[in-house]
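Hi R.,

Here's the chain you asked about this morning:
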Amino acid sequence: MTIEVRAVAQPRPGTEEAEFSEYLRGITLGSYARNHSLIRLGRDASFWHPQNEPTLHRLAVFLHEYLHFTHNYSTVVGLYDFFVQLRLVRLYCNTVDREGKSHGEPVLSADAQKEAHSVLEWRQHLRGSVGQDALNTLRRAKSHPPFVRIQRSNFQLTIGPQTIEAHGVSAVFDTSGLGTGLASIEVKLGGDVLMEGCAVEAECLLYGQSGASSDEIRKQVPAYPYLTARAVFEGIAGFSPTSRFFCRICVLALQSTDPGDALVQLAEACKIAGPRADEASLIGSFLSSSKDFFHSAVKRILEDSLQREVEPFAMRGHAGRGLQRMAGWARDLFNRRLGDEFFELGPVEAAPNLGPIVEMLRSLPTCPVVQEIDACTDSQELLYFSETEVSPDLAQEIGAAQALFHLTDAHIVTGRFSKTPPAVSRACPFFKACRAPIAATSPEICGNRPWESFNPAATEGCWYGVGVACSRGRSDL
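And here is the predicted structure, written out as tokens:
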């Protein structure tokens, strides 16, 4: 095992608050990498670091990142994003020779090149996007620019034998008062603004239990992407929803492969109902009208689509087995979703009783976490939530799968597969946490060109090297 993996025991029932203080150790900075399913926490964000005091702020930021993980594997848009990643990996492997080097997009067939472009376009549709000029403008805004209107763009995507009807939605915002020279900007709505919007509103719920104002909490976060979905909803519906209600609106919209369009439809329905409508009744009616379709769609995904997408990787060693484990995350989380449409929100709303949050973290699949131990020495470690010691096989298999995802994404430059080495350097996702010999002897490789960690003549290697080994697909190159 090349990375020291520490298992973090799940809290046991009893004195939940005392257990939680030991279990969730402070957060001030965190991120979730959807491309390779990894939570990353800075020194002050280590929620079990012995030198951190357990605070509400740190708990809120941790839950923010944890919700991203659950939404990646328990919502329709999140799981289809996972499918997109798998499709991209399959295509990338067909550009890689026996030495682990990609020859770029030109070695793919014309049909495969077309499929790659369509898959990337679909990923952008699922996630949403914003242009650089618009992003720079949003960064200058102290509050979210006012919503103006919706623009629709329906189109078809052909991926293999399948034709996908996509219903794109863009929101236009008034930025004339920001002094940037842009009268308005456009944001393509997708899962990103919904996931971030839900996570921020969940933080508001948590803080609200201690008497904090949700409006004050929202003032502390950047307008985009955290407040964009709310700005669209308020602009269409004509009223400001509670955090509890809007979290559920976001989760419902995420159960569609057209998440932006779903948000707009929900907002339009709320506009018809009016600001005095009972929020619980509205959510109940939305669930009632979509339940049968959602359950049949999830059943189809779990019984057919999920296995069909991961099956092609069955012979790809550790990475293939790691992808099967990730598919297991989706099965477990979607089965929980079928039993409770908002399973991740109830525990947050139960605060300050922390027992439900403890139970959620114990009972659900848990995302690997890289945490910074010491900012001065730049040391990190990889952690799993687990009642028992994490087996070396489990850690290596998931690590190799994460490396394969990272490797593929690193080779996508300006919307195309590039040759090795890609133009943009990338650090290994386990950089600073790895204990493999190469991490000590050649840190410049791990920090900039981790694909060079693979040695075809070696009998074993670091997790990233294993991921590269599993990517080899062409003996004719």
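One quick note: The chain has two domains: 66-125+294-367+383-476, 128-277.

Cheers,
M.
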